[in-house]
Amino acid sequence: MERSTEKPREERESRDFSVSEGRLQLRSVTSSDLEDILAIEKASFAYPWSPRFFLQELRVPCARSLLAMIEGKPVGYVIYWLLPSEIDIHNLAVDPAHRRQGIGRSLLLAVIDEAKHEGRSRITLEVRRSNEAAQRLYQSVGFVSQGIRRGYYSDDGEDAVIMALEIRR
Ligand SMILES: CC(C)(COP(=O)(O)OP(=O)(O)OC[C@H]1O[C@@H](n2cnc3c(N)ncnc32)[C@H](O)[C@@H]1OP(=O)(O)O)[C@@H](O)C(=O)NCCC(=O)NCCS
Questions:
Q1: pLDDT tens figures, 89-138
Q2: N- or C-end of the chain: fewer Cβ atoms within 10 A?
Q3: 76 in helix, strand or coil?
Q4: 100-105, long-range: CB within 8 Å, 24+ apart, which pairs?
């Protein structure tokens, strides 16, 4: 049998990026990160995910996550599903005190790397129609709008913009 040259998953998921605040470390979210994540989540969304919902989401077999840390302090996260042909991003947030430093972009670039590494051809997500900051972030790494899902958000009935990035290899 030929030996695989692929790195083990844990090694691939601990990565360093440079952002304007310094060195950003990325690794998978664990249940002990929940408190830090919830604080960022509550500061970021009018309708935050509950602790129960986070735990359920993280237990889904195809769920993947990345926690961004500066000097050991959690500053952002992304949660996504690695599906057979694509990646779906379900949640992404950066601590308000650390925004506009390139952290959101670094998280997305890491997900794009994973899509390439895992041979997925597309990344998709839904974003609130009113969320211009997030739409600009997604556009900045190449996502394009694919249409509108009317009344997609059950909490307040807001429309979602469907965005997608086709992965070139
Ligand atoms: C959207 C969000 C994740 C962006 O994170 P961030 O770390 O501040 O983003 P970055 O610093 O990596 O920004 C990268 C680019 O995105 C765009 N961008 C990010 N925030 C923006 C804003 N408030 N207004 C306009 N453009 C913005 C810019 O093009 C920016 O590049 P620049 O700073 O060189 O101009 C953050 O604002 C957030 O957590 N918002 C609340 C939660 C949320 O909306 N999540 C997305 C759900 S779909």
A1: 999 999 999 999 999 999 999 999 999 999 999 999 999 999 999 999 99
A2: N
A3: strand
A4: 101/19, 101/20, 101/21, 102/17, 102/19, 102/20, 102/24, 103/19, 103/21, 103/24, 103/68, 103/75, 103/76, 104/76, 104/137, 105/137, 105/140, 105/141
pLDDT attached to residue 7: 43
Q: What pLDDT digit, counting tens, does each position of 20-35 carry?
A: 667 899 999 999 999 9
Structure tokens given for 58: 């993280």
Distance CA 129, CA 135 (A): 8
Backbone CA torsion sign across 110, 104, 128, 33: positive
Q: Does domain 9-121 have CATH number 3.40.50.720?
A: no
Q: Ligand 1 mean position to 86 CA, how many Å?
A: 23
Does the CB atom of residue 127 touch ligand 1 within 6 A?
Answer: yes
pTM of the model: 0.92
* φ, ψ at 105 (rounded to 5°): -65, -40
